[in-house]
Amino acid sequence: MEASKQVSLRRIALLVAGLSMFGPFAIDAVFPAFPQMGGDLGADKLAMQQVISVYLLAYALMSLVHGALSDALGRKRVIIGGLVVFIAASIGCALSRDMGTLLLFRFLQGLSAGVGYIIGRAVIRDLYDGDEAQRLMSQVSMIFSIAPAIAPIIGGWLLGWTHWQGIFWFLVAFSALLLLVTCIWLPETHPPHARLSLHPKRLLQDYISIGVNPRFLRLALAGSLGFGGLFLYIASAPAFILDLLHMNERQFAWLFIPTIGGMALGAYASGRAAGRVDGARAVRIGYGFMAVAAVYNVAYNAFAAQMTVPWAVLPLTLTSFGVALIFPILTLAILDMYPRQRGTASSMQAFSTLVTNAIIAGVLSPLLSRSGLTLAIGAALFAVGSGVMWKWERISQRARREQAPS
Known about the structure:
By secondary structure, this protein is mostly helical. It has 17 helices and no strands.
């Protein structure tokens, strides 16, 4: 019985990680193709940046809906519907012949890409709790972290064999495989008796009650700002690799493998720490790594005559380790605040992260990616903002304990 349970847990971890991967994969896989796509579609670097920001904007807007739909209709049905839409949108991207059409289908991709990431976390919390939930969330984070690392590498390889459209056909094949495995493997974890109404008034009340909750805002911002420092580099990958490090389209691994390696190690450490190390202490350790990385990154870029690898990417490894160590703890804290509305709470957390990422990709990345120092300072400010939110939450926790009747 225990062995069967472990097989089931591993299967759920692999499936939820895969479902979480296809959305981020669609962001990073196209980075190496930017010069080729821009040439074919008559778009400059600033216009090509909108391929990312349009996708993220749609992702963020629809993220508010995915979780509520799963609370009302069930997790599996909504995931399957999202995968079908994503497959159709990816086909549209592959067949696009002008920038307007491509952006339209990228928007449609973004509308559907969040189902796995958002609903998958609710699935984990539906099935498991306590230390087991943290371990599984960490396993999923570790597997999920592979996506940003291998996506630009696969994109670069595909460009060596075919044109940029081949990247979108690859996304079609990957999401079709996920659709098949979801239909076979994924159980329905949110039974009919636990489902909520889709009445607009109730949904609006839920969104408002969660969105104005000070504790939710502190935890959500701690997570989104913490990841924001990393995402600044991810969104700036073409400028960082091609312009600042003077590498070529097949060398994106120099950014992504160290970054995702740190994230995978951090997720592994978070899983091992579950039940052994207090959550608050694990978070403090994570912020310690982020602080060391921020100081080193700013100092290196301020004094180095020329950015070189591996020194230019070492702080990203340390930052990603810290982010991966704290993120499962923050996520579970948010989901545990709303046991009957886990999908909606997951949506609101994802919305916070995605809005932050959309602003980074559309506004901050073009402004800050002109030099290594401005990127380093921007990333450091995100880490500071995340730490302030967590410190505020800890102070509020102590105040609540002191005010509670003995």
